[in-house]
Amino acid sequence: MNHDDLNHWSKRAADWARDYHASLRKRPVRARTSPGEIAARLPPTAPEQPEPMDAIFADFESIVPGATTHWQHPRFFAYFPANAAPASMLAEQLANAIAGQAMLWQTAPAANEIEAVMINWLRDAMGLPAAFTGTIHDSATTATLCAVLTMRERALAWRGNTQGLAALPRLRIYASAETHSSIDKAVRIAGIGQDNLVKVPTVASHAMDTRALNAIICADRSAGFLPAGVIACTGGTSIGAFDDIGPTLEVAKAHDLYSHVDAAWAGSAMICPEFRPLWEGAAGADSIVFNPHKWLGAQFDCAVQFLRDPAPQINTLGLRPEYLNTLGQDEITNYNEWTVPLGRRFRALKLWFTLRAYGLEGLRRRIRNHVRWAGEAHDEIARLPGFAITTPPALSLFTFRYDDSDRATEDLLKRINDDGRIYLTQTRHQGKFVIRMQVGQFDCTREDVMMVPAVLRELTGGAK
Length: 464
Fold this sequence. Notes:
Elements: H1 3-22, H2 53-63, H3 86-98, H4 109-125, E1 133-137, H5 140-155, H6 160-163, E2 171-176, H7 181-189, E3 197-200, H8 210-222, E4 226-233, H9 245-254, E5 258-262, E6 287-290, H10 292-295, E7 303-307, H11 311-317, H12 348-383, E8 387-394, E9 397-402, H13 406-419, E10 425-429, E11 432-438, H14 446-460
Parallel strand pairs: 2-3, 2-4, 4-5, 5-6
Antiparallel strand pairs: 1-7, 6-7, 8-9, 9-11, 10-11
Helix pairs in contact: 3-12, 4-12, 5-7, 5-11, 12-14
């Protein structure tokens, strides 16, 4: 295959993509396959000789779409979305064509400088102070790992990277039980250890108990531990819990602890001024992460980390051997020093395209619609016989339960997802099995959202 062939097949792929998205509402949201079924359709070894592209494309069409869980389906209400607005898809095509490696300014000046500007655009759009800068990662998991590594090194006076952790004080990180499992993964990878991630009790609103946080930090110091950082939650994955960010960060500052706000999903909503009270005080954080690929339409993967001062993270992660120096440019920004990988993709391009193609007001309109429609679906489900709301809407996320029974609720969820018209997922809240519904797919409509109570009514025989 050469570039002339690529021209032909790119047009064919664009036609396929248009037809695919036009057909999504007719497809079941979740893949209907069994483990191993797809692998069994592929040859066990790679071909020795080239195969014609028409045969390859035909195999793609016959194998992949029917075995795909359709994340761009407008009735995908499970997990959080991994959106892909058309403008973002176009930008990804161009970034793929350029195929640059944006590890340094000199290897990708456009990628580097557009990234800096996109961080500023988003910072201003979300109402954060001009002091914040930042960078783009693949996912919030990586951004949180970077923050936790920075907590570690700052607390250890930058000795962990050189001496190792064996002979150094035992560190502690503090977060609520509503935080994402990526925090657990980060403390494991950072060598801090799961046992040293302290899950602070929550209050009735499901926010971290700041009095308990303060007491636990004091007790840990007395016991010989070294507190290193506090992670606050803005829109938890399970039920959408929001910590009281301001008071939480006040405790962190009182103990001179580095702070990180995990706003992976809900952070996008902060482009709407009316939702900013949900993370009031976030301007005082050292680090904030949110995923534009979850609710702003940027194609996965795209996570933005804002940093009040990048120096501690650069001191933690930066490593510049001679072959990575840019001659004659001592003060240039090289974003590989802000994160774990050396290699970096041109992720800023899809932000640039998406923010311009839809505008902040167009994106706000979508988010506001999703929140409003989720509230309407919540109200309809609350009226259905046998259903009980277990947590009210947090932005566009809420949970419910059926027949006050784990078994009945789990059975209903299986029937919902086997039915195929909508896709929901589950969590456990206060020890009970509950169903999550989250509205955020880029192209969903009110009719798509209201399909949820309609399907629930039909599957349970509820009266209209």
